[in-house]
Design a protein that fits this description.
By secondary structure, the chain is an alpha/beta fold. The protein has 15 helices and ten strands. The strands form three sheets. The protein has a six-stranded parallel β-sheet. 50% of the residues are buried.
């Protein structure tokens, strides 16, 4: 895969199969029925129990589809997409040959689960399922060709394919309003995590990837605090949904391994210790930014964020990158998202395990620095 370069400026952008993105209040009601791939399509809904039992959103979608297009609904996807639940949903879908479309509704776990089901459909029948997604968090899982689930041992397993990216995204603020505020804001930090780490990702292109990420950081810093103060403001909600999209979709098909250290730490912490991925970004991103500031090439990229936060650059990339880390810490305080590993019952004796999972090694200078970063969050 072609790597990007700033000196000289060069690279490659590979677009995805996304066909349409609708955004705004009631976009599901306005557009969903016309987005199915054919007049005879049968759609299966993948979602979680909270949306199904505590809101009317799922029943609304079922009504929009009607008996002609609604093939069934699975409402038991929980955090980190446990294998048993994914298996159960997969069996329901693959045992009905009339189903050609999946509609995922919710955060990263339902979206990833739908991708995994499509992947298995391809393995079994040689074709992927059409995927329409209605995200209700800011995780941006709808923007990538990868999907993760948690196996029986608590380890995250990832599958990836260019045809796993949904064909249609519906950002409907009417749906997102139902998301609990802590989940909404913390997944906003997950989007910020994407935007920051893509700036120093080796295959991320300057345009549109890095330019989109810089815009995303500005929007997230501006609208997350505003949305905290006015959680029902649908304009703020939509702004954040689009910022989430810009934080990750620009990568296109240029995915080459984990997005970065903060993401690797998030995977090590998330399914293993039951920490939501939004909160893992709250725990890891500021420290990772400061660690990356020690590398001149990474610092140069992170320092680019500063003007997008309303601050002039000093000309010292390391200093400016550290100022970005400070700004993220301040944002976490503003959003009441500053937390520690102790809050999730993770003790010091777990540091070697977490560090090895995140770095792939058990010794060395990088290992020691990452272990120190984790220790600082106890």
């Amino acid at each position: 895969m072609t790597e990007s370069s700033d000196h000289p400026l060069s690279g490659l952008w590979n677009p995805t199969q996304l066909q349409a993105l609708y955004y705004g209040p009631s976009s599901v009601e306005k557009h969903l029925p016309s987005l199915l791939p054919s007049a005879s399509s049968k759609a299966f809904i993948i979602t979680g129990s909270s949306l199904a039992t505590k809101t009317s959103l799922i029943s609304q979608v079922e009504s929009l589809l009607g008996a002609k297009h609604h093939a069934g609904t699975f409402t038991n996807i929980t955090q980190h997409a446990p294998l048993a639940q994914v298996d159960e949903a997969t069996d329901l879908v693959l045992n009905d040959p009339s189903i050609d479309t999946l509609i995922s509704i919710g955060g990263g776990s339902p979206i990833d689960s739908a991708k995994v089901i499509s992947y298995r459909a391809h393995e079994k029948h040689g074709g992927f399922l059409y995927h329409i997604t209605i995200p209700t968090t800011l995780s941006a899982a709808e923007c990538t060709l990868a999907a993760g689930y948690t196996n029986e041992s608590g380890t995250k397993v990832t599958v990836a394919h260019p045809h796993l990216i949904p064909q249609v995204i519906l950002y409907d603020s009417t749906f997102a309003k139902e998301t609990p505020q802590m989940l909404w804001l913390s997944t906003g930090l997950r989007s910020l995590d994407h935007a920051v780490e893509l700036l120093y990702y080796p295959t991320a292109s300057e345009a549109p990837t890095k330019q989109s990420c810089l815009t995303a950081t500005s929007q997230l810093f501006e609208y997350l605090p505003k949305c905290k103060q006015e959680p029902d403001n649908e304009n703020y909600i939509t702004r954040l949904q689009l910022a989430s999209f810009m934080s990750l979709f620009g990568l296109g098909l240029n995915l080459k391994g984990s997005l970065g250290l903060s993401h690797s730490l998030g995977h090590a912490l998330g399914s293993t210790y039951g920490i939501p991925h939004g909160m893992t970004s709250c725990l890891t991103l500021p420290g990772v930014v400061r660690l990356k500031a020690e590398n001149p090439e990474d610092a140069e990229q992170i320092a680019r964020i500063l003007p997008f936060l309303g601050h002039p650059r000093s000309g010292d990339d390391k200093q400016d990158a550290n100022r970005v880390g400070d700004a993220i810490d301040k944002l976490l305080e503003t959003l009441d998202l500053d937390t520690t590993l102790k809050d999730y019952n993770v003790d010091e004796d777990q540091i070697p395990k977490i560090t090895k999972m995140a770095t792939g090694s058990d010794q060395g200078e990088h290992y020691d620095r990452v272990a120190s970063l984790i220790r600082s969050k106890l």
